[in-house]
# Entry
Amino acid sequence: MTKGNQRDYYEVLGVSRTSAVEEIKSAYRKSALKWHPDRNPANKQEAEAKFRECTEAYSVLSDPQKKQIYDTYGHAGLSSAGASQGFDSSIFQDFHDIFGDFFGFDDMFSGGRRGRGRTQRGADLRYDMTLTFEEASAGVTTKIKLPRQEFCEACNGTGAKKGTGVVACQSCGGRGQLAYQQGFFTITRTCPACQGAGQIVRERCPDCRGQGRIEREKTIELRIPPGVDTGTRLRVAGEGEPGPNGGPPGDLYVVLEVKEHPFFERRGADLYCTIPLSIAQASLGVELQVPGLNGDEKLKIPEGTQSGAVFRIKGRGLADPRGGGKGDLYYHVRVLTPTKLTRDQRKIMEQLGATLKVENKPADRNSSIFDKVKDIFG
Ligand SMILES: [Zn+2]
Ligand SMILES: [Zn+2]
# Structure
């Protein structure tokens, strides 16, 4: 049976028989954008007819098999093959590829995609964890208890009571999808009765109440490398939730928070702290035992040290968790001016003051009173 009123598909799209796929695609895009009913509110009827026509032409010419039939037998060939009964919804997958989210149909397409029973990856899980400064600095192996969904062993994840099996879903006839006609579009949605599985259990598994999965607490051993900081995310592959329909599991992300140290301030892998000095210690020099990351460190203050000087002990900071050596340890010294002097101390200070020469005029901008960082060895 021929349809005499049907226009030639090549004519509809304005392409030739030798046009390449890309050319056909681009021609279709142009006319579909031109004739989309949303863009032609004044002559919606005509636009809808034209839009349908070019979409049908494209659905045939973009499919090598259909194109060959059409080239050989014309419209008649397609009618007998049952291919020109409108257009099947798979064209919309293409439609989406061509137009992206231009018409805001993303939800409709993704709904259709979801229902095809494709395996999906399980959900990623996040676990927040707080560490002491010492744990973060040295690294720690710990166990965490994680509530998560696991496959029900009693029913092997099917949700059906042992020996009862499953039946095809009546709502969707086992297809997992429902098709709606909306305007001239066919919209497919995941069947709500079976959630796209296409089948329904006869009797629910008593262990999981038909869910196929059970919430269980799983203990995971976690090795935290030394040097981690607040905000560090550790990925534990495959320890997220199992994927539906036998899909691969998601990942577990452990997000760390590290408590602050009472006096060490952290900048990356480097550590800073402030050490007070008396005027006498700063003037005459002194050797101090100061706290370090792993026990005391020896800090030699040379005579004539200015307030604000910074001393560095190389390689005694935190480890770089990305495996790049160690940071440094910085001691910033602050000379304390005495605020309460005894009568004797005051006398001595006055005697000292009379002999000390200082020019009380502004210092040169470029000459900082803060000495450069001094390295301490040994
Ligand atoms: Zn079960
Ligand atoms: Zn169903």
Q: What stands out?
A: The two ends are 99 Å apart (CA to CA). The first helix runs from residue 9 to 13. Residues 152, 154-155, 159, 205, 207-208, 212 surround zinc ion (ligand 1) (CB under 6 Å).
